[in-house]
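HUMAN: Ready with one sample?

ASSISTANT:
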Amino acid sequence: MSELPPSPDVPSPRSAAAAAPPDWSTVDTVLLDLDGTLLDLAFDNFVWMARIPEIYAENNGLSLAEAQAELMPRFVKLQGRMEWYCIDYWSRELRIDVAQVHRAEATRVAWLPGARGFLERLRASGKRLVLMTNSHPRIVEIKQERTRVLDWLDEAYSSHEFGSPKETQEFWSAARAAEGFDPARSVFIDDSAAVLRSAITAGIRHVYAVRHPDSSRDPHRHEEFAAIDAVSDLA
């Protein structure tokens, strides 16, 4: 699961110029989020904000509105913690096979515009491309089956391997130990404000926020970060 979508009563931001790309000659490693950066977050938001509440309502004799009212506080309470991203946890808590729900809706998995071309150009330039995701490994597998996204990357890490989400410094310490990247010569791209702040604290030199992670929803503001509409803005 990713960040909860913004409240519908929050006005959409005005369009703004994309932040300038880094000086690529100073960059060795490009660290990339998955959902909302390379792949369209519309899939995940549909599963968690629509399909899971529908199934929960059916299973518990509730209206959809009642199910949403019950689930949302539970989601908010755990946002940014490992339980938030753990499909095993939610499968137990909700008595729903969460992985199977994702698989049943997998035709909705899609690349964000320009993401594949961005990866192709950076691979051709010799940059090391590394996935840094909070997504559960079984959900990554489902997305890999649909998009072959991992084929474009040199390495992939899930926070479930490290036991700490990207929002924490424990994640970044473990990721640096596993990958050996130099934060001063790295770029990190994500759509989550909490994760972006954590990456900045971890010393990553070039940090970019994606404003349009979900093609079905209004863009994010991301006024405190160097922001782009899509990764293709950077290459």
Q: What stands out?
A: The first helix runs from residue 42 to 60.
